[in-house]
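LAB NOTEBOOK - FOLDING QUEUE
OPERATOR: T.R.
BATCH SIZE: 2
PURPOSE: Compare the predicted structure-token outputs for two unrelated chains run back to back under identical settings.
PRIORITY: normal
REVIEWER: second-year student, initials M.K.

ITEM 1
FIELD SEQUENCE / FIELD STRUCTURE:
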Amino acid sequence: MAGHDTATVVFASFGLASQAVLAAYFAARRWRPRAAERHGWIAYAFAGLGLPVGVWLILGGQSWRLYVGPLLFALWAVLGAAVDLWRRIEWRDPIRWGIFVPYVGLYFWAQMFLWWPLWDLWRAAWLGFLVLFAANTALNIRGHFGQDAADSESRQLPLS
């Protein structure tokens, strides 16, 4: 962290922590599904912290490259919490495109805008993000299309 300004450290820490939280959730969904059901809301709550992080970065005069990712992640959290936790809308199977497209779009672009800026700012953080993102993506996809998907068809867990 030496040599990095506070905004870079906060941005990188938020991005890396978000990947760790998502990896923990997707791992729990695979190996501890009851715990994932009980505590899955934590991933949306953490993502919601993107709002104060993004606003802080804006108020600090940071580049849009730093505040867009946290803000998109917060928007994803609001949408996800609304459809998965509050309204409990079944939108994954069958796919409800009006929810699927913004959900996946917000998720994907939030991840990319949390990751890409790290290349120029902090290569070690960029690499750490890549490793965690690959792990959580593999666990998430496995949960939808691997043996885990067949095992869990009877229960739909949020955040997937």
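ITEM 2
FIELD SEQUENCE / FIELD STRUCTURE:
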Amino acid sequence: MSDDSREFMGWIDALAKGIIAGCALGYLFSLTGLIPPAKAVVLGGLAGCLASITYKNARDDMRGKNKAKDADKAVDADTSSDLGKGGGKGGGKGRKKTKKGAKGGRD
């Protein structure tokens, strides 16, 4: 299965779950007698649709950030292993060590 079809199925899955949950909550709200059941189910379905889109976007953003952090860690690990062997910028010798948060230090 291609990446596009997996992404599309992820959207369909998220929307279906959101619509079903929203409709169910709308129907439960209609039992209070404040609004008619048909209207409650439709409004609940719309709210569930919007909520599922928001949730999926937030989840995808978090996954993207986690992938970026993992990639940065891998690059940092490769760079630090090179520096320890005498390669790179100065081989790690003669650097001035500073406390975290001090001016001029790397955080």
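REVIEWER COMMENT (ITEM 2): The mean pLDDT is 80.
FOLLOW-UP: none requested
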